[in-house]
């Protein structure tokens, strides 16, 4: 009988899940519950190529997960027969404490709760997901896999803000990063694709989804990353500013009468591609550019300029660059963004191959020329499979 892990990603109004055979990374079944707490909830469960879709109210996360387990029983696969050995949970913020996956117990739950001030949008639903899953699946171990873990031992010089030390220490202000599971998976996979030992490589990973982050990885260890205390810092994102002068906050507060909550909303939900072009989806931005829209053109230019800066900065941090990988929705699918982000970086030894770079890619692939000193890759991220792998690694 095969062994499977149920991977759960519990968000504020959704639960996403995959049942995975961790050895081969095979997804046996997957699905999601959306609009939890709204009048019409949505459920989707996929098994053996068949999509089951339902619309019904889902009161809360407990009710949502109960329906998921019912769907497994009704549509399949039977979880017992599928050999489920553990549940792996995505948790966004593990602070400086967790450098790897953790077997969930009362202490781990208390830590996730205690870290809520550092991730007020994410840790509460993550915690809720673990609690209800433990109640409903009490006979298997539950493992928390933290999005910050890969960055938990960033060098001090990269993790530290130049802020009053006492204030920083007291309020735990430092750079924690995010998307760590993806950066870890992609950097490890990239080494396999280029056929060189991970230990030898200086890598940049560009995770470009709705949220976006860059990391510098030396010998398999993260030495810098673009997200900071929260996912707001760094690259331009779908709706987030990324890097911005903090004095903009003082200005908007003192001279424009914005409240802190309004600025939070502005920076996190009404900026980035959306703020510049009106659209947070990169495909829509391209459509506007094709129509001659100046705001969208500028959005794309700002997006690519920021990427280029980070690639150059990380090459400097690492003293060189061997492999650069693109991943996530935009990184995997958008050849225009890949080309614009790397334009002018030939001096670093980066030469994209226009023909190889074309089109959407679902398997890892080299998109640089044979003569390029830096190997440029597209590596589709598989965060759930990485969570499943880390979950069983702990058992
Ligand atoms: P997240 O998991 O952070 O919500 P994804 O990794 O799914 O995000 O990435 C979402 C982004 O990927 C969107 O901006 C979307 O426009 C972009 N994207 C998805 N498919 C394509 C495509 N074929 N071409 C360009 N961009 C794409």
From TrEMBL:
<feature type="site" description="Transition state stabilizer">
    <location>
        <position position="240"/>
    </location>
</feature>
<feature type="active site" description="Proton donor/acceptor">
    <location>
        <position position="147"/>
    </location>
</feature>
<comment type="similarity">
    <text>Belongs to the acetokinase family.</text>
</comment>
<comment type="function">
    <text>Catalyzes the formation of acetyl phosphate from acetate and ATP. Can also catalyze the reverse reaction.</text>
</comment>
<dbReference type="GO" id="GO:0006085">
    <property type="term" value="P:acetyl-CoA biosynthetic process"/>
</dbReference>
<dbReference type="Pfam" id="PF00871">
    <property type="entry name" value="Acetate_kinase"/>
</dbReference>
<keyword id="KW-0460">Magnesium</keyword>
<feature type="site" description="Transition state stabilizer">
    <location>
        <position position="179"/>
    </location>
</feature>
<comment type="subunit">
    <text>Homodimer.</text>
</comment>
<keyword id="KW-0067">ATP-binding</keyword>
<feature type="binding site">
    <location>
        <position position="9"/>
    </location>
    <ligand>
        <name>Mg(2+)</name>
    </ligand>
</feature>
<keyword id="KW-0547">Nucleotide-binding</keyword>
<comment type="pathway">
    <text>Metabolic intermediate biosynthesis; acetyl-CoA biosynthesis; acetyl-CoA from acetate: step 1/2.</text>
</comment>
<keyword id="KW-0479">Metal-binding</keyword>
<feature type="binding site">
    <location>
        <begin position="281"/>
        <end position="283"/>
    </location>
    <ligand>
        <name>ATP</name>
    </ligand>
</feature>
<feature type="binding site">
    <location>
        <begin position="329"/>
        <end position="333"/>
    </location>
    <ligand>
        <name>ATP</name>
    </ligand>
</feature>
<feature type="binding site">
    <location>
        <position position="90"/>
    </location>
    <ligand>
        <name>substrate</name>
    </ligand>
</feature>
<dbReference type="GO" id="GO:0000287">
    <property type="term" value="F:magnesium ion binding"/>
</dbReference>
<protein>
    <recommendedName>
        <fullName>Acetate kinase</fullName>
        <ecNumber>2.7.2.1</ecNumber>
    </recommendedName>
</protein>
<dbReference type="InterPro" id="IPR023865">
    <property type="entry name" value="Aliphatic_acid_kinase_CS"/>
</dbReference>
<dbReference type="GO" id="GO:0006083">
    <property type="term" value="P:acetate metabolic process"/>
</dbReference>
<feature type="binding site">
    <location>
        <position position="383"/>
    </location>
    <ligand>
        <name>Mg(2+)</name>
    </ligand>
</feature>
<dbReference type="GO" id="GO:0005524">
    <property type="term" value="F:ATP binding"/>
</dbReference>
<dbReference type="GO" id="GO:0005737">
    <property type="term" value="C:cytoplasm"/>
</dbReference>
<dbReference type="InterPro" id="IPR004372">
    <property type="entry name" value="Ac/propionate_kinase"/>
</dbReference>
<feature type="binding site">
    <location>
        <position position="16"/>
    </location>
    <ligand>
        <name>ATP</name>
    </ligand>
</feature>
<keyword id="KW-0963">Cytoplasm</keyword>
<dbReference type="GO" id="GO:0008776">
    <property type="term" value="F:acetate kinase activity"/>
</dbReference>
<feature type="binding site">
    <location>
        <begin position="207"/>
        <end position="211"/>
    </location>
    <ligand>
        <name>ATP</name>
    </ligand>
</feature>
<keyword id="KW-0808">Transferase</keyword>
<dbReference type="InterPro" id="IPR043129">
    <property type="entry name" value="ATPase_NBD"/>
</dbReference>
<keyword id="KW-0418">Kinase</keyword>
<dbReference type="InterPro" id="IPR000890">
    <property type="entry name" value="Aliphatic_acid_kin_short-chain"/>
</dbReference>
